[in-house]
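Take our chain:
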Amino acid sequence: MPNPPAWNGRLEHVAALSRAALAAVEPAAAVRRALRREGDALFVAGRRYDLSAYRRLFIVGGGKAAAPMAAATAALLGDRLAGGLVITKYGHTLKDEARLVPDKIQLLEAGHPMPDEAGLRGAGRLAALLDGAQADDLVICLISGGGSALLTLPQPGIGLDDLRGLTDALLRCGATIVEINTVRKHLSRLKGGGLARLAAPAAVISLILSDVVGDPLDVIASGPTSPDPTTFADAWAILERYDLITSLPRPIVEHLQAGLAGRVPETPKPGDPLFGHVHNVVIGSNALAAQAAVARARELGFAALLLSTFVEGEAREVARVAAALAKDMARNGRPLSPPACLILG
């Protein structure tokens, strides 16, 4: 182990740990770690795909990290690509990333956290692309944080202004991301397993960068390729909990009521055969970033401990807890003796 670090260099060490954590979840690097190609053999998290068995290969997806993820995926599979479309947030496409994405893949920018017309048009084009997928096609879906707003394709009768009103109301009342996405999934053609449903019967590989504590697949970007365990009744109960029923746009209320009455199909649930053709892989997460920070701290000579990757709450309150832990270490050597590093994710 290196000599214990000098405390007067602690700011440099904090920066080093931050860089290590961010590098562990850098989108392009995460894709390159998850995908490996040997000729026509594609290896993804323990599964082997024979690319020669597929007539066409598409890349689709959405999220704030969609551009670097698409560039890395295209670099590996570019000669086999038939086309694709990914949507990212305004200003989240670097020039180098745009240059590395082949022309056959449309790289679009749209609004986040409020969905806009550009996102609506892009999601419609993405759905049209998937609608023609066949059993001998392979779809690689790239999902990251922000995908809920960027993959906006409402059910018939619901307009963009309706969704914007809903999103604003849920954000203002303090609803959690789980609650917000539960409602969103039941108003969308892409969320809550909808993208997987549109792509069927094609095979789907979904590479997911998680921005949600615990990495629940059905919550990250509202789970476009994941079974949805929530129901119309759950979505309705959330709106009742926050007393929003009477203030929301009428088309949203009417659609949810139709779902409650069984006049609108539920989102695809766990056990649905369509997910037999879907492989969801989390390639980057809070946990991976925290583990990388711990490893770097130990390399620098700190005693290091990962306390939790499930920390949630108001940042100021969490900071008070972190400060109390630091004081206890400095005074009493608990839970580690200095020089020490505690990581919370």
